[in-house]
TrEMBL record:
<feature type="domain" description="Fe-containing alcohol dehydrogenase-like C-terminal">
    <location>
        <begin position="192"/>
        <end position="283"/>
    </location>
</feature>
<keyword id="KW-0560">Oxidoreductase</keyword>
<dbReference type="Pfam" id="PF25137">
    <property type="entry name" value="ADH_Fe_C"/>
</dbReference>
<dbReference type="InterPro" id="IPR039697">
    <property type="entry name" value="Alcohol_dehydrogenase_Fe"/>
</dbReference>
<feature type="domain" description="Alcohol dehydrogenase iron-type/glycerol dehydrogenase GldA">
    <location>
        <begin position="10"/>
        <end position="179"/>
    </location>
</feature>
<dbReference type="GO" id="GO:0046872">
    <property type="term" value="F:metal ion binding"/>
</dbReference>
<dbReference type="InterPro" id="IPR001670">
    <property type="entry name" value="ADH_Fe/GldA"/>
</dbReference>
<dbReference type="Pfam" id="PF00465">
    <property type="entry name" value="Fe-ADH"/>
</dbReference>
<protein>
    <submittedName>
        <fullName>3-deoxy-alpha-D-manno-octulosonate 8-oxidase</fullName>
        <ecNumber>1.1.3.48</ecNumber>
    </submittedName>
</protein>
<dbReference type="GO" id="GO:0004022">
    <property type="term" value="F:alcohol dehydrogenase (NAD+) activity"/>
</dbReference>
<dbReference type="InterPro" id="IPR056798">
    <property type="entry name" value="ADH_Fe_C"/>
</dbReference>
Length: 358
């Protein structure tokens, strides 16, 4: 059986298109119901805040993402929105918009789902566990690279694991891709997030799940990443935004691999953000992705980036064991990277040795 994937229903692209958000949200199924805007708190008090089409009676909530998104945080925001809407005589918001990087967009996707599905978001960490469509949800990236704007997952850290809510219902109903919004990102953050896209492509293109659909998107996304980070000193924000979109599409019929599995362990135990965790892990994987790692290191040099080192030096044994547990739990990633007999190739001791290099 071939998987029948859902894609983003509608998208808009172009510099300044964010200013059409009011019209976009008026096309939601319940346009008169209160809107919920979840916005990265770095934009509080900025010009972008003034451009958000929040009406009297809408909820504008600034979200801090210094830490990776957690299931408890999602549940708390869900409860806050329900209380806010109830105070205005309603049941559900008309829309949920996530305006920020991958973490904010993942929170918005997860909150949308938890408004219409019972229990905790931790109950749905896995594949195709969501039963009910979420509230109409819109993604507006202000960083590019994660592919969160197009993916069918929302990556969350729960009580026991870091794992996405993977579902066709997770996919945004609408995305607004405005390259102007990513222009002010700091150099390091821009690089780490952009490398998430590059690493997506390496792992997809070298994985056993690859097909022509994934290859077409992955090859184009990789070419755009090279243009942005290796071939020019110009920012090329339009290209980076499209690389992120294509990179997210490339893993729809494929999957990521060794780097992302190890990065999940780093994030869960050490609290590293996903982008920098990927970079730290990928820099140690020349035995698995030799050409990709060489190219990654050239991009680091070109962009003047230095990675943190010695992150697991002196780590307590129980934390190391947990990190290994989290990484090895992600079986589809290992199978894509190493084939169906991956357990013979990637033992706990092998994972430990890789982590000890970080």
């Amino acid at each position: 059986m071939f998987r029948n994937f859902k894609n983003v229903s509608r998208f808009i692209f172009g510099r300044g298109c964010f200013d059409q958000m009011d019209d976009i949200l008026n096309e939601a199924p319940l346009p008169e119901a209160p809107r919920a805007f979840l916005v990265d708190d770095v934009f509080e008090g900025t010009d972008l805040e003034k451009r958000i089409p929040a009406r009297p009676g809408d909820l504008l909530r600034f979200v801090n993402v210094d830490d990776e998104p957690k299931t408890g945080r999602v549940d708390a925001i869900r409860d806050e929105i329900l209380e806010f809407v109830a105070s205005r005589g309603g049941d559900l918001p008309g829309s949920v918009s996530g305006i920020g990087g991958g973490s904010v967009m993942d929170i918005a996707k997860a909150v949308s789902l938890m408004l219409t599905n019972p229990g905790s978001s931790a109950d749905y960490q896995g594949w195709d566990l969501i039963q009910n469509p979420g509230v109409y949800h819109v993604g507006v990236p202000t960083l590019s690279g994660t592919g969160a704007e197009v993916s069918r997952t929302t990556v969350l850290t729960g009580p026991d694991k870091k794992l996405g809510i993977n579902s066709d219902h997770t996919v945004f109903d609408q995305v607004a891709l405005d390259p102007d919004l990513i222009g002010g990102a700091p150099k390091e953050q821009r690089f780490y997030t952009g490398m998430d896209c590059f690493i997506h492509c390496v792992e997809s293109l070298e994985g056993s799940f690859l097909n022509s659909f994934s290859r077409a998107y992955g090859e184009k996304a990789m070419d755009l990443c090279r243009r942005v980070f290796a071939e020019s000193d110009a920012r090329h924000d339009d290209d980076l935004m499209m690389a992120s979109y294509f990179g997210g599409m490339s893993i729809a019929y494929s999957q990521v691999g060794v780097c992302h599995a190890l990065s999940y362990g780093l994030s869960y135990v050490l609290g590293l953000h996903h982008g920098i965790g990927n970079c730290v892990a990928f820099d140690c994987l020349e035995d698995y992705y030799p050409e990709g790692v060489d190219e990654f290191r050239l991009m680091m040099d070109r962009q003047g980036i230095s990675l943190p080192r010695g992150l697991v030096q002196g780590m307590e044994e129980d934390r190391m064991e947990k990190m290994i547990d989290v990484a090895l739990f992600l079986e589809p990633l290992w199978e894509n990277a190493l084939g169906p007999d991956w357990k013979k190739k990637m033992t706990r001791e092998t994972v430990r040795r890789l982590y000890e290099r970080m």
